[in-house]
Design goal:
mainly alpha; Glycosyltransferase; 415 residues; two-stranded antiparallel sheet; 2 domains; single chain; two-stranded antiparallel ribbon; 62% helix; 6% strand
Length: 415
């Protein structure tokens, strides 16, 4: 009996420590813009080490179908967003950002990266691969168009933009295939955002094509939500799987760069159907409110209806859509439950077990640097409900332990 007692005591103690850790962490990290930038750089140092020394891309590819591409592209995009948000126009930061982002681009452009995808698709290797690669290149050139070898990358970017645009012309569906027989709108939004960025960097070229594509998108919304669907029929672009939080959160990031007015319309629907609170803390549902569904490779685990992927991505989405306060609260929630730790100026989450999540967190936070104010301006009252629930759980656990002790003593005395 004593062994059971000590096991129970150990479990309660560990659970109590974890709950207290999360509660305290919700109030840590009240970063100023400069501190936030430094914190993101510490995340990038960890990701850089993993990518260059520990084969992060290859390891993630064994877990996720696009693990190699995502590990590299998010690393490169984070550096670009850091440079783009730099009001001081620090040449050292710009140089570092371009260098690291080009490293990521060249990794994505390698035969190893291409080997995952189908060369027979149009465009070659599918729109996921081409779209994300070109979007990263668009951000690199948004940071600087004068770096060494910029002419080669500028020409490559222009050719890839034409390739995307040529393939979408004359096709009934606004969504090209990512894999044979499979099309996800989010991948097409990434590709089309790269075309929009071309128009911002150079003389506008794709305005009418993007406008026509957007009209095609609006004719093929998910009828249940009037939002952009998660997956579509490859032939006609009609919804094959309704709107989901994991993809919509990312689509909004891109849509904000393509057409902010329409992004705001879709964001209002997103707020009403997907943005929620769980035990008092902000979260993003994987399925529209009132619907149930299970998790998959896109969403990650779905617990209490909350999709991990959509919730993490929303850190950047909320900020880009102008809700800096909600973005900061969402980050604090993810930061607390991610059990972040720092060592040797490197910051990682969940003890480095899911580094692709680290990459999404870093990218989301970097994207909001130019929009977010200091978190110190925000009230801490948003955590009250969670604190009360946490206190109740701890009280119940310890009450059960002490009541059990009392009952065991009574049985011992009676015997």
């Amino acid at each position: 009996m004593k062994i059971i007692k000590y096991i129970f005591l150990t479990i309660i103690s560990i659970v109590t420590i974890l709950i207290l850790w999360v509660n305290v962490s919700l109030h840590s990290g009240n970063y100023t813009p400069a501190e936030k930038k430094a914190d993101i750089i510490s995340q990038l140092k960890y990701l850089e080490s993993e990518l260059k020394n520990n084969n992060l891309g290859g390891r993630m590819q064994k877990v996720y179908p696009e693990g190699f591409v995502f590990s590299n592209v998010l690393y490169g995009l984070t550096w670009c967003e850091l440079a783009l948000s730099d009001k001081n126009n620090d040449p050292a930061l710009k140089e570092k950002a371009v260098r690291e982002a080009l490293y990521a681009y060249n990794e994505i452009n390698s035969d190893i990266a291409k080997s995952t995808f189908d060369k027979s698709l149009l465009p070659e290797y599918g729109i996921f691969y081409v779209g994300w690669k070109n979007y990263l290149l668009s951000k690199i050139l948004s940071v600087d168009t004068t770096f060494a070898e910029h002419k080669f990358y500028s020409d490559t970017f222009a050719a890839q933009c034409d390739l995307i645009n040529d393939n979408i012309k004359g096709v009934l569906s606004p969504y090209l295939q990512s894999y044979s027989g499979q099309a996800w709108p989010v991948d097409m939004f990434v590709a089309m955002t790269s075309l929009k960025n071309y128009d911002k960097i150079y003389v506008p070229k794709y305005e009418s094509d993007i406008a026509g594509w957007m009209l095609n998108v609006k004719r093929r919304l998910d009828p249940a939500t009037l939002m952009i669907p998660h997956k579509v029929d490859t032939k006609n672009g009609r919804s094959a799987q309704g709107t989901r939080g994991s993809s919509m959160s990312l689509i909004l990031r891109m849509l904000a760069e393509i057409d902010m007015d329409y992004a705001k319309e879709q964001y209002k629907l997103f707020e009403s159907k997907f943005v929620s609170t769980t035990f008092g803390l902000p979260s993003v549902l994987e399925y529209p409110e009132g619907q149930k569904g299970s998790g998959d490779i896109d969403s990650g685990p779905v617990i209490f209806g909350v999709g991990f992927s959509g919730t993490i991505v929303s850190i950047g989405t909320f900020s880009v859509m102008g809700n800096s306060e909600l973005s900061e609260k969402q980050f604090k929630t993810v930061n607390a439950f991610g059990f972040s730790n720092s060592f040797s100026n490197e910051k990682k989450y969940l003890f480095g077990k899911v580094p692709i999540a680290d990459a999404f967190i870093a990218w989301g936070r970097a994207s909001g640097l130019k929009n977010q104010e200091s978190a110190q301006n925000y009230s801490s009252s948003w955590t009250v409900k969670f604190h009360i629930i946490s206190f109740f759980i701890i009280a119940v656990l310890w009450a059960a332990y002490f009541i059990g002790n009392v009952l065991r003593r009574k049985r011992t005395i009676s015997n």
